[in-house]
Amino acid sequence: MVQDLSVHHRPVNSLFLASDPRAGAEYTLCEEQIEFFHEYGYLKGVRILSDEQVEVLRRELARLLDPQVEERELFYEYNSNESGDPNHVLFHALGAWRIAPGFHDLLWHPAFTVPAAQLLGGAVRFWHDQLFCKPAHHGGVVAWHQDYSYWTRTQPLAHLTCWIGLDDTTRENGCMQYIAGSHRWPDLPITGLAGDMDTIDAVLDNQQKREFEHPVAVELKKGEASFHHPRLVHGSFPNHSDRSRRATVINVMKDGVRSASNEPLLQGVPVIPSGQKIEGQFFPLLSEVPLHGLAK
Description:
Number of strands: 14
Largest sheet: 8 strands, antiparallel
CATH superfamily: q2cbj1_9rhob like domain
Order of helices and strands: HEHEEHHEEEEEHEEEEEE
Strand content: 15-25%
Distance between the termini: 46 Å
CATH class: Mainly Beta
Shape: globular
Radius of gyration: 18 Å
Number of domains: 1
CATH architecture: Sandwich
């Protein structure tokens, strides 16, 4: 029988549990980091996972990459290759937290929830997770986009994304790239997630195009993360290297965000009528308040 871990709003194993309840203080961001995030729209190099934790998630991911995985029905979306081009493969799936204990428990890991609460400035509620995998030699792109362009079925805009590398990520294997300061731009039209890196040009004005001349390559060690604002324009180039580029993404929102749609917010999830607070089985509260205020 398939077990849906979304019924558990607490860790089910001990992979991320700290023996000392005060241990979360070590994950608190400093004021300079918070200021940098608000100025540029991102913060990189935040350690989330130990090497041992990375290995557990890699083992779980290997099973989830099998399109015949028993619990596939629990994914909100599952794309073995979202690009559709066998020469440029991009695995992309939403919903691993419902299936794999490690990806489920990661949501409550204080190394994530503490800085997330600080950057959101309040209690953190889960939105959805993602897996992105680019195989060696023929990994595809994630085209330039703003996350919130896909999330306007929620209101107000009070979201945060945490991108966690399960491999060392570099320019060579297709690391994340940011357009610093673009979180101040208005919402852009959706131009596709797995097409090419030039499609977005059609919706940019001349000043925005000039800002694209200096993207920030976010190179990370495995287990490190970057946080970014939902309007920050980001994407990643192909992986033609000899190494894979695997990542998990946690998308969250400030507690109190409401539905802006009378359709299911995620595939297979019961409707939350427009105007009502997003909560319930599929949107658990992860962190009540920022730890010891907003900075250390």
